[in-house]
Design goal:
The complex is a heterotrimer of chains A (about 325), B (about 400) and C (about 290). With about 325 residues, chain A is mainly alpha-helical. Chain A is about 85% helix and about 0% strand. In chain A, about 55% of the residues are buried. Chain B is built from 14 helices and 16 strands. A 7-stranded mixed sheet of chain B has the order 9-8-10-11-12-15-16, sandwiched between helices. In chain B, strands 4-1-5 form a 3-stranded parallel sheet, with helices on both faces. Classes of the chains: A mainly alpha (about 325), B alpha/beta (about 400), C mainly alpha (about 290).
């Protein structure tokens, strides 16, 4: 009987995500177009947050570089225009970010704690101002038009990026590589002593997470239609994944996902209902959330479930 | 337990989204008003610009139209009042494009108004065009936008294309021999920087210095000092309000004066620029624009209405342009007798209507050409139009008087 | 040539003085109290707007506003720590978790403060002219208001430095900066000290805002760019080192001034390049251990 329960649990864990995926994939057939646009944005945040958690979750290194990697993707897309097919552009955008992350990672991952945080943050600003200077003084132009793409197509591509990301995440988690990553997070020095190539593991994970941010950026550029360095390298975007992951709760894989989804939806909801007060409301929600849900939504859900099962036990 | 929670939540979220979106799609009231959507910066770095230049004009126009009962649409046989539905784009272009599509697709607004800023206008023009929505350009304008050839986009504001030759003409007239040009490192700066130089050269004016500065710079004094040491007659800056205010402030503080002092964006604002520094201080400063209450009877009326509504004067660059473009738009709707975008677009593209600034029409590229003025200059508290020709409201003051030495 | 060098140097210091002041504020909050205060710039903004209102409406001298803004903003900061951040510190499992959760809370504060400022003062740019005239010495011209700003920034920095070195409370703050847990064991009321640190941090930001408003135009959204600069400076100076951030601020001003003189377009690039190169070469900052 125990085995049966395990199997059914297993299968439910497997089929449920698939069902949701199919549901999402069929959405464009029946949902209004704006829902698709909104979902694309929400999934963009999910992709960035999950790929951020991929590196920063297990290692505990808080990276503020997402805006840099996302921006590189955006810029790649803007530079290439639509001369190449969209999947190729997304791939190149992702690869460009991957390479940048390899370089930056190799350079900086010996920095720890706050110094790493600040370096990654500086990277965004450096790229922004350097690209700006380059365009203004060397190429003599700034700002690029990106041709628009069908909204449904963008949605599907974002969904595909998300699925690949989740697949990559599961693969890494179950592998020796993932274990090494966990070990680094628990005690970096100890991990090094047990033979883990600490630098290599960190740099590669950092680069993989950057790949997905870059890919998402390259895709989103087609939604924004006009790109300049200030738009591509928006420092606020670096904070978003951190906030969303904390809001959702970092302990579980699904924490960042629901964190990003609810955070992004909430923002859209407030901004359209209360254009003049939305920051006030949103800010208050953030402060209350962090005070009363220190472990994020995941912690809250767990507490609720616990109390409800305890209640049931009490009644029986 | 973990595995049950995740799918449950996700499924719930998806279902909720379905419900929310379908509920919103169902609501469609009978036609008793015209809803106009606008995604514009109410917060973020651009919000300051919206408040001093352009933003309030749209509100004023809506109030004005409703005071007269609305816009008469023949199709419905009655006057329909106008409602302005605004969203805050947080000065973020991604948010703006999303919200603009929400207005068009979800809220099904009848028309859309433009966002604030040249880059934002670019993005909005393409999206509006994609859905065949008319977009009447507001604050912002660039040559590069012309190359896109968007049939539903109408450019209202003048920009470097006409202002640069205007400025060069004035400089030639008053006898400027040499200039220094500095420009902000963005689309606005680059276009103005590049546009001004060839016109100056054509008029035989020597460009002794041309340098860019990054947005967000906190000290422009080295540029001022360098220009001064080169002994140029005129100092020209293509900047946004932050740079424009800093530049003027530092010139005053350091007592560095030029025979002509021109800044593209900022001097046009009476409350921000003139009243912050003082009428006697800004005497002789030139800026992009331009119009004033003397430009036309309609212009005088606009100033009065604006002052009585908001308590301050309107900006002397875009306000009259946008105001008149909206009057043109209203007459186009009434002439077309419908709310159909295509039909109104055709009327707009071909018809001339009387507006506050006089006759208003678009050329074959759908660019407004009958500008009330290109370059303004503060003279005794009035932003005088100093273009050569009939639009001029006062001759240029040259050389500019030195910054007054007042000590508090 | 020497005159030129002097000119660039002083121009750099004029800007660096303000950077130094706001960076000292953030060092107290981040370096000591461990709150990554993204809303630091919002306190600067509040200081600037209060000064503006007092000057425009009541005609109160901006330098006098220092005495009004300072205590008011100190109180806000102190209370915020006592209520919000203390709670977060206690409920956080680890220092890293506290860093994350306090960042989220600060983001919330940023939103709230900025929105309130827009509701109270409107979104538009504001400014006033105060002491806007040139002063000449050593054959060069300088702005009176900026010289005054620098003078006050240096004076405030010095006073604070002496306070830290000589007073009991100052010593407690320095102890907390080095090792909060050990300081607690030594019988220091760490909650009180950290709350005071946060309050002093807000105070510095408020004073910085007041001084800034004398030479720069202000708007409700101005905060973030100063936060960014302050973040760079505190790392430059060595996290938690108060003299370090003061020197770092002056240094950043100098570098900006030199690069603006050579190639203005690159002045901001230079900030970040300097910052990142220094981080790589000496991760603990100029005065770090």
């Amino acid at each position: 009987m125990d085995i049966a329960r395990v199997i059914s649990k297993r299968s439910s864990a497997l089929w449920a995500p698939f069902l949701i995926l199919i549901l999402l994939a069929s959405l464009p057939l029946c949902a209004p177009q704006y829902t698709i646009i909104l979902l694309t944005t929400i999934f963009m945040y999910i992709v960035i947050t999950v790929s951020w958690t991929m590196f920063s979750g297990p290692t505990g290194y808080i990276s503020l570089a997402p805006a840099a990697f996302f921006g590189v993707g955006v810029y790649t897309s803007a530079l290439l225009g639509l001369v190449l097919p969209l999947p190729a552009i997304i791939g190149i955008g992702g690869l460009a970010s991957f390479c940048l992350a390899l370089f930056v990672g190799a350079l900086t991952l010996r920095l720890r704690g706050t110094y790493f945080v600040m370096f990654t943050f500086g990277l965004v600003e450096l790229l922004l101002h350097f690209v700006l200077w380059w365009e203004v003084n060397i190429t003599g132009t700034t700002g690029r038009v990106v041709p628009t793409v069908n909204n449904t197509k963008v949605f599907y591509f974002m969904l595909i990026i998300f699925v690949i990301l989740m697949f990559a995440l599961y693969t890494i988690r179950g592998s020796r590589f993932g274990l090494a990553l966990e070990a680094i997070g628990q005690n970096e020095d100890a991990a090094a002593h047990t033979g883990v190539n600490v630098t290599m593991v960190k740099v590669i994970t950092f680069a993989i997470s950057a790949f997905f941010m870059g890919a998402a950026g390259a895709l989103m550029a087609t939604r924004w239609t006009y790109i300049d360095p200030k738009i591509a390298f928006n420092p606020l975007l670096s904070f978003m994944p951190v906030l969303m992951a904390i809001f959702g709760g970092m302990g579980q894989l699904y924490g960042p996902i629901i964190g990003a989804a609810i955070f992004a939806y909430l923002e859209e909801f407030l901004i359209t209902r209360f254009p003049y007060y939305y920051m006030l409301i949103f800010g208050t929600i953030m402060v209350i959330a962090i005070v009363y849900m220190p472990e994020g939504l995941v912690g809250l859900i767990r507490r609720l479930l616990k109390s409800s099962t305890e209640g049931r036990h009490a009644r029986t | 337990m973990k595995s049950k929670v995740l799918p449950g939540i996700l499924a719930f979220a998806v279902a909720a989204l379905f419900m929310v979106s379908s509920a919103e799609a169902k609501r469609r009231p009978a036609k008793d008003k015209i809803v106009i959507g606008q995604a514009i910066a109410l917060s973020g770095p651009l919000a300051g610009g919206v408040a001093i230049a352009g933003g309030p004009i749209y509100e004023l126009w809506v109030e004005e139209v409703n005071k007269n009962g609305g816009i008469y649409v023949k199709e419905y046989g009655k006057k329909l009042p106008v409602v302005l539905k605004r969203y805050d784009d947080k000065s973020d272009i991604g948010t703006m494009t999303n919200l603009l599509e929400k207005l068009i697709l979800n809220d099904k607004v009848d028309f859309v108004f433009p966002p604030w800023g040249t880059a934002w206008l670019y993005a909005a023009a393409q999206i509006a065009n994609k859905y065949h929505y008319i977009l009447i350009g507001g604050p912002g304008g660039a040559l590069k936008l012309k190359e896109l050839k968007l049939p539903y986009f109408f450019q209202v504001l003048n920009f470097s294309e006409t202002q640069a030759p205007g400025l060069a003409g004035i400089f030639k007239e008053v006898g400027v021999k040499s200039v220094a040009v500095i420009y902000r490192g963005d689309l606005h700066g680059v276009e103005y920087g590049d546009a001004m130089v060839p016109y100056f050269k054509k008029k035989g004016i020597e460009v002794k210095m041309k340098k860019s500065y990054p947005p967000g710079i906190k000290d422009l004094s080295p540029l001022l000092k360098e220009a001064k040491s080169l002994g140029v007659d005129a100092f020209c800056a293509a900047s946004y309000p932050d740079g424009g205010m800093l530049l003027t402030g530092q010139s005053i503080e350091l007592g560095i004066n030029f025979n002509a002092f021109f800044i593209t964006v900022t001097p046009f604002s009476p409350n921000l620029y003139r009243d912050t520094f003082g009428v006697d201080v800004v005497e002789g400063v030139m800026g992009g624009g331009a119009w004033n209450a003397k430009s036309s009877p309609g212009a005088k009326e606009l100033v009065d209405k604006y002052v009585s509504r908001f308590g301050v004067e309107p900006d002397y660059w875009g306000a009259l342009y946008y105001w008149s473009s909206l009057q043109h738009f209203q007459q186009a709707i009434e002439k077309a007798g419908t709310l159909d975008q295509k039909k109104i677009r055709d009327v707009m593209a071909t018809s001339t209507f009387q507006t506050a600034l006089g006759p208003f029409w678009y050329d074959k590229n759908r660019y407004f050409v009958n500008h009330p003025g290109e370059i303004g200059q503060w003279q005794k508290g009035v932003f005088e139009v100093i273009d050569p020709g009939e639009k001029r409201t006062a001759p240029p003051l040259y050389p500019k008087p030195p910054w007054p030495k007042k000590k508090k | 040539m020497i005159v030129r060098v002097l000119d660039i140097g002083i121009a750099g210091l004029l800007l660096g003085g303000i950077y130094a002041l706001i960076a000292v504020g953030l060092t107290l909050q981040y370096g000591v109290a461990r709150v990554l205060n993204i809303a630091h710039g919002e306190f600067i903004m509040i200081g600037a707007f209060i000064t503006w209102s007092l000057y425009i409406i009541f005609g109160i001298n901006p330098l006098l506003s220092l005495a009004i803004c300072g205590p008011a903003i100190f109180t806000i900061g102190f209370l915020l720590y006592r209520t919000l951040f203390r709670r977060l510190r206690i409920s956080s499992a680890s220092p890293a978790a506290f860093e994350g959760s306090s960042m989220l809370a600060c983001f919330g504060l940023l939103f709230i403060i900025q929105n309130l400022a827009i509701l109270i003062w409107g979104a538009d740019i504001k400014g006033y002219s105060y002491l806007a005239f040139p002063i000449r010495f050593w054959g060069q011209t300088f702005a009176a208001n900026r010289l005054i700003t620098l003078g006050f920034a240096l004076a405030i920095g010095l006073i604070f430095y002496f306070f830290l070195t000589w007073s009991r409370l100052g010593k407690a703050i320095r102890a907390a900066a080095q090792d909060a847990a050990a300081a607690e064991l030594m019988g220091i009321n760490i909650d009180q000290v950290l709350a005071l640190c946060f309050g002093f941090g807000a105070l510095m930001a408020g004073l910085g805002g007041t001084l800034l408003s004398m030479s720069y135009k202000i708007q409700p959204t101005m905060g973030l760019e100063y936060t960014v600069i302050a973040l760079i400076v505190i790392v430059l100076g060595g996290l938690g080192s108060i003299p370090g951030s003061f020197i770092g601020g002056l240094l950043l001003g100098l570098v900006g001034s030199i690069v603006t003189y050579i190639q203005p377009g690159l002045s901001l690039v230079a900030y970040y390049l300097l910052f990142m190169l220094l981080l790589l070469a000496k991760p603990t900052g100029i005065l770090g251990k």
